[in-house]
Amino acid sequence: MFDPKRRDTLRRLAGTAGIAALGAGPWIVRAATHFAHDPFSLGVASGYPTPSGVVLWTRLAPEPLARDGGMSNASVSVSWEVARDEQFRQVARRGVAHAESRWAHSVHVEVEGLEPGREYWYRFRAGDARSPAGRTHTAPRAGDSIQRLRLAIASCQQYEHGYFVAYRRMLEDQPDVIVHVGDYIYELSWGDNLVRSHGSGECRSLADYRARYALYRSDADLAAAHAACPWLVTWDDHEVDNDYGGLISENNDDPQTFAARRAAAYRAYYEHMPLPMSMAPTDSGMRLYTTSTFGDLVSVDVLDERQYRSAPPCRWRNGALNKRVRAEECPELDSTAATMLGTTQEEWLGARLAKSRARWNLLAQGVVMTYVTEARRPARYFWTDSWNGYPAARARLMQQLRTAGASNPVVLSGDIHSFVAADLYLDPADPATPCVGSELVTSSLTSQPPDEGLLRKYREFNPNVRLATGKARGYLRLDVSPGALQADLVAMDTVRERDSGTSVLASFAIEAGEPGLKP
Ligand code: FE
Ligand code: CA
User: Fold this and answer.
1) Which residues contact 413 (CB under 8 A, 6 or more apart)?
2) Which ligand is nearest to the CA of 365?
3) How far, in Å, is the centroid of ligand 2 from the Cα of 238?
4) Distance 161 CA to ligand 1 centre (A)
5) Residues 225 and 289 both lie in one domain
6) What's the 21 CA to ligand 2 centre distance in angstroms?
7) Which residues fall within 8 angstroms of residue 93, CB to CB, at 6 or more apart?
8) Rounded distance from Cα 415 to ligand 1 centre (Å)
9) Do 116 and 212 have their domain in common?
10) What residues does 134 pair with on adjacent strands?
């Protein structure tokens, strides 16, 4: 059996050797430290529950907005404990992790040896400081029958556009899991009538991205949401650079220069999310795609549609940046070599879907997948940053969804700061072909929407689109049971104030075994 103490000792030794070999700074581990300010200013988080464990996260940052979070180069030992009760009387597991400056003094603890499908509380201690307690849970065993799972889906939280009050309302729903589908930070400022400020310019360096995450996480509602339940996360573009793809930046920077910027952004992302250590970035990138399974009911395939995508079609036209294309002017659009997920992830997903036994197979990813032409049919006029710029890749995925045998696929997306509900067809443009699943696009938590005229085109020109509106900020609430998936599109009254009511803008149901949205 697994012995947590022994594993921590091994990890500490391995970590120390690693740093010494790299010559990357002091390797002294300080056991006892006094902090002038609370080192747990960024709170605690958990993620990626399995039947036997969960990932716990914190980052020591006594001065969160200062360079290096106000920490020196020294590593600091951080003890953690996981209890069965909120008062920490029945401690189930405890151990010591090491917060190293090379990881911005973040800690990612992969707790093992917990019971399946159970609620736990956790906290950290560093020197004389103790973190707030977080609540989390493990997943039920893969085959175990469960009757209900509630998920909340979030995306696009431009800090300057609003307060994160949607998280406060979301927690009142008591979600089992929060899934973030990208634009967790914004690397740059934009929009009108800002309610607060980044206080700094566009992120380019590791220090810039770290400070940006620290700023966002200093929002009490966001911190509370992380402490309330486990999260699954994927990024979209703004965690790095607007509308980038692979190593191609928005403004066509030298790929080597952009690679360094992307690596800094990925590293800061890892440092601030409750991700397992196996996802830590390497020289070649960061493996973020994975699957989380909740009993026999739900599998969530968390996808990465940014890191491996091929170049957007016809991006430059007469020397100008071109993000929308008419199909007849851009033969490249239909290239079968184009990829959104990259070959490795695409094959992984196909194999995953083929062996899934879950009743509901959710695909969490950033950008709109359903077919949307922005001109009256038969004109094909597309915004190329979404799956509409990668039609051959989308056709392969529709084929996978149709043939892999995974039951009840539902795609969860974000990115366009609007709610969209749509059905996915084997030929995505043709609702006369078999429906292979549905897509629910969550609106932005705060980010300002596109012109409503665009969403009108979505609705008018695309019979597969059931609803599209940018009028509300908010989130998606999913209640999944064996017979049906119920989706509520939750709209905030305002995000320009620190508190706000909500209303349900619309609800859709999907019945198991009957693909397609029902009102
Ligand atoms: Fe966004
Ligand atoms: Ca985006």
Assistant:
1) 155, 181, 365, 366, 367, 368, 369, 420, 439, 440, 441, 442
2) 2
3) 6
4) 11
5) yes
6) 39
7) 4, 81, 82, 111, 112, 113, 114
8) 4
9) no
10) 122
**Residue 197 Cα distances to 156, 186, 208, 212, 452, angstroms:** 16, 12, 15, 11, 26
Q: Which ligand is nearest to the CA of 191?
A: 1
Spacing, Cα 388 to ligand 2 middle (Å): 14
Mean pLDDT by 10 residues, the chain (519 residues): 33 33 43 84 98 98 94 95 98 97 98 98 96 98 95 98 98 98 98 98 98 97 98 98 96 95 98 98 96 98 98 91 96 97 98 97 98 97 98 98 95 98 98 98 98 98 98 98 98 98 98 96
Give the domain extent around 69.
1-139
84: number of Cβ within 10 Å? 16
Ligand nearest to the CA of 236: 2
CA of 406 to the centre of ligand 1 (A): 30
**Residues 98, 144: one domain?**
no
Q: For residue 317, what pLDDT is reported?
A: 86
Report CA dihedral (55, 210, 218, 199) to the nearest 10 degrees.
-160
The verdict on 186 and 87 lying in the same domain is: no
Assess whether 160 and 39 both reside in one domain.
Answer: no
Please tell me the distance between residue 367's alpha carbon and the centre of ligand 2 in angstroms.
Answer: 7
Please tell me the distance from the alpha carbon of residue 65 to that of residue 58, in angstroms, as a whole number. Answer: 16
- CA of 156, nearest ligand number: 1
Centroid of ligand 1 to alpha carbon of 239 (angstroms): 10
Residue with tokens 């917060």: 99
